[in-house]
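Lab notes, practical 5.
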Amino acid sequence: MKKLTLIILSNCLIIFSLAQTAGTIPADKNSFTLEECIQYAETYNYSLQSSALNITSSELSLKSAKENIAPSVTASASQGLSANNYQKSVNWNGNYGVNAGMTLFKGLNNYNSIQQSKLQVEQSKLQVEQNRNNIRISIIQAFLSVMMNEDLLVYQQEVMESSREQMEQGQQQFQVGQILESDYKMLQAQYTSDSYNVENTKLNIRNNLLTLKQLLSIDPNKEISIVRPDSATLFKSLEIPSLDMVLSNANQYLPELKMSENDITDANYDVKLQKANFYPTLSLSAGVSTGYNNSNLTDNEKWGTQLWHGLGENVGLNLSIPIYQHSNVRHNVQQAQLRVQQAELSNMETRNQINQELQQYYIDVLSAQNDYVVTEAQKDAYEANYNAYSYKFKYGSITAVDLIQQQTNYLNQLNKYMQAKYSYVLKRKILDVMMGVPVSL
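Output from the prediction step:
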């Protein structure tokens, strides 16, 4: 009963804690910064909630391992009915008892089981942290996709408005015979294309927000928006740390590495548990029993008196010494030792692979930064060139074909710039996740 009360109280405290955490983000909130998105997901994301249940499961296993140290108590009762045809009698009899037992020594089996269960709790927590990192990265990607398409939409709307003015100008020029009908049709087609680009980008924003809502486990019908960071300070916070700092922080933080190291410890506990079977088992037992038989009842010995007189106690030590077990224990120990070696090799391989991936990813971040700087300069150049051609077209010094070609070049370069810009931000922020640094924009 006490254990049930403790479990209920513990669950109430967890719910209260979640409510306190959730209280920092109102339930009716519909606009989120990146930090708020991550905080909200860590509380409400269904996948994270599900993986957190594994921690509870492993904690229950730890409790069971600890309780195995305590004595086990059982009660028994039997009631019988016998008939004697010769004497033409029916007899009732009963036997009752309470027995307790506990293992005093079994090669430290219980201790090692407890330590192994503690390790499993830690592994469950590390698995949750690994899942949390994956969710963080997905949220960053979805959030930045919204930002990128919102930025792109602003440029596209400006270009669309420019295309509309050029189409109207072309109509006037066509009406007075300054340009051919084919040129005017091309200006109409370009305006239509630019309008569809705007609509497609709006659809992309809706799709990105839908992905974000899924990651936050928010009703897909609910309207949400993002709170953009100050663009002036955004890129000032993207300074790339040194490779040594990245490797040092990541090797200390990454759950994958800690889980791999714990696999070695877990395998060593398996060896100890198998070796415990070499040792004798010493156990303590005690019991109380009594019984009655109505055929023995007399006027002087009633049912209760017979139970009292039949009351007996026993206590004893039991020692079990393994002598020959067909080498099964020795082979099991050898198998466990092989698993230790496999875990050690796997850990070295995992550490080497992760460090190699970190270095490669660090190079990708530097490359993404270079691409962003180059494409920004190219975008500015193509934009200036397009504006110059728009001015020339306004005064009739170039054809519609020339203008549309420069506009196409500008839009293509604009898309490259947007991709490079937000690819750099994304990779830089993922680097923070890998180092265990709180993510912010």
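Observations recorded by the TA: Confidence is low (pLDDT under 50) at residues 1-23. Residues 300 and 306 are 10 Å apart (CA to CA).
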